[in-house]
């Protein structure tokens, strides 16, 4: 390629001059090609170790002048052909022009301008956005593609210099990280190391430091462990590897590939040698961190962040931290983890102004909100730019929401209220009990539209007012007062200052009157609900009456959702639960409905309206518990692995015992999926839900560790899993909430425990306190890091399970061993995944449906099958292989969806590899019949198909008429016999079902007849199969001889089947048969060459039997054969056809020893059939 002219030094030790003229020099890198010797080895080693781009260009062209000592690179090439084209262009277009100039300086200026113009012309349409990667990075990407054979679709993200430890010897080279692969290349003293690993095959990724491998990165796959070390910046490299591996796991989990962000925030000064993909990945990681920290919607993207201080009025301090700005939010996080968090939605902002600077408060910025709160930031580095940015976002926000967001929305627990009092919650009249006459009114009303505009707990409260509950009521009243004081000091609503004091209040318990409001705030569900007014109502309307597998499962589980609670013993609660679950299944069909969602949603409905419960469910399933509620509960399995790892770290004595008993796998899924709601009394479990919405999964893991720690002595004495489960179950049944003002609800799990004396009661608040005291060292960042490691293991384990399930589903008579099937499955899956990230004509989401059985999840199309067929088939046909692959694909694609699954693929491979001679012939025969053989593959296929269809259709019609007649008689007879008799018993239907399930083995008699064109295509395939064989000449002659004999035998059979006097199926002579000839013909005469050239024969063979058409001789256009130096063959060309050997370097057809096949008089040549009748 052409290069921008740069000064270079001519190092003769490293380059060899191959061509030269007065103005240009063509050089080859020493060591490239053959015969490099020791110098070539040393140069190649230096190229790899010192310069990643040197090996991209083993050839280069330099511009020089006679008196100047300066050389300029103008072109480089990876092959001699490429560099020669550039050299010839320079000689033909510039050499004569340059000889005119008198000044060498003018010559150099002219050459540089010409080369720059060529480069500009070439790059004019490459990147219209003007964000071209730096030249060095582009060279590295070219080297990566050339070295590892990657297509254009494979994008390089970044590359690093490092060492790969192969045995005990480090190999210095270059590590290339692409979107889908990890690649490494090293060349040291003639020894080359090339390594390619797909990210989807990575099972472990760890950064560690040992004596043997200092500061190394270990990459685990199913087959090997790879160690890389000696990085310049190991932290950056490992972080990028984590991102790419995580993207690959997401691809396996939910079929999401990496899509380059088309409009990411661009830095003002882009870094050199960093690709756009690297910047996009960094931006994606920052976005995920930003959304997780402040519980923001999934589509929120971070625009930027800056250091600043926040004035906190509750303690009169300036707290240092970071301000984060996105299109809809301004957020603040202090440097200390428990310092202060703040979220300001731009929809709430009314005024943004720059305050006066002072020595105490430099560069201040004031932001006021609708609820009359003012936030003061200071120490902003670029305040003017920040104000402009916020102003732009405010304009966009106001255009999106021209009116009040809450207009038209039903009364909610989150409606604005004065800061001095809690949010008003206007409770309607208390409904009658479920057994009252009004119960039916509520049921009919509940079926029309969302009617639960407040928590079901208020509608079905059976206890007395709080004032009449004595000590419990006083405690509840005190909690409410503490929260009101907190609201007055720290604010209320989304813009509340969230500090360590807020967490302490949550741990002490949220009052029932504020629970729904605070759940919405802490989970971030309130933001999504306000920005999507009316969304839930639309979903309910659209999903009403829709039937799917999810709705069927929902109906099945509705009455299992907290049946002990009175709210769900009534149609009002059940109808609300049905609407919320169905609406969510309609919103997110990928998840649809999963068990345990009904239990969690029923609790959400107790403390909020239907719409609020819906958005809380969205926050739970899509952000706070990612991948928990799907068909494979991957998220819960990941956190189960984290729990096992934490148990090893904090409770090492108990960990080994629990692993031996297998208890952790049994208990953790039920604990995590339902947030302890299914294993604890309701009053206690709801306190855990309070803490979960504020702290996330961290509190659930802490509590699980505290439960094991409290029962350690008993668990160590257990002898089996059942005993351990009983101990833990009884302990959880006796975790109580002594402060609850709700009446106790019987816990169904307690009915399954032993009848012995129950253990002493444990207060839930004491248990939470112990969990924070002993296990508070857990951090959210550490949990996310552990989630990444466990996700790799879990998803790869699920993929291995899928592989084993698919292999077991393959019939035993397929011929391949289990190991061979597993290897074929991995190749098949890799081809499917390659199509996902290297492009295909069909969206991959169509090809892979995670809801389907494992056997149907991975499927490939015709182009992918062609590549696999060419590399795996034992029937190599040279240039004819793609044609044969297309026929095999059409043969295997029985449902005509242009895709085949693994079972169909293995069936085709088995027939070619493990079938006996007859089975292989069957496969070969079927490959040349419809639908495998397409009509376009032969010139006369359409005409041949016409005759073939005409003959077969008449026979088929006759068979149908006979079958219908016999069937009607049979039905009439059976009808007469079965009148008045009882229907057959179940054994009759079992026998019918067994017969349907029996595999019907094909026999040769089941195959349709093959016409002439199809048989010719079969001969072509055989011809191509032996094109590279050592006995090629003998095999060609054998094919020609056998094919000629078979065609003649088929003609004889056709002739005898058309003889007069031959009876039809019903025994009567055929009415359509022609009259008998006057004299019988000798059968030996039937094998004589056909008479060719009669117009009637060419028109379709309407001549009468016994009248031979006139004979004519035509010359075949076959070239001289490779077998002999004879002239092109001269054969009798059949009517309506051509010589099928035309244009091929083959033997004369047919051989002179056998003669040409015969055509019976009166028989259409295109209707010749095989096998003979």
TrEMBL record:
Q: Where is the Rab-GAP TBC domain?
A: 509-696
Q: Transport: present as a keyword of the record?
A: no
UniProt feature, compositional bias: Low complexity: 416-444
Q: Where in the cell is it found?
A: Membrane
Q: Listed GO cellular component terms? A: membrane
The UniProt entry, under PANTHER family, shows: PROTEIN VASCULAR ASSOCIATED DEATH 1, CHLOROPLASTIC, TBC1 DOMAIN FAMILY MEMBER 9B
Per its record, how is this protein called by name?
TBC1 domain family member 9B
Species for this entry: Myotis myotis
Upper lineage is:
Eukaryota, Metazoa, Chordata, Craniata, Vertebrata
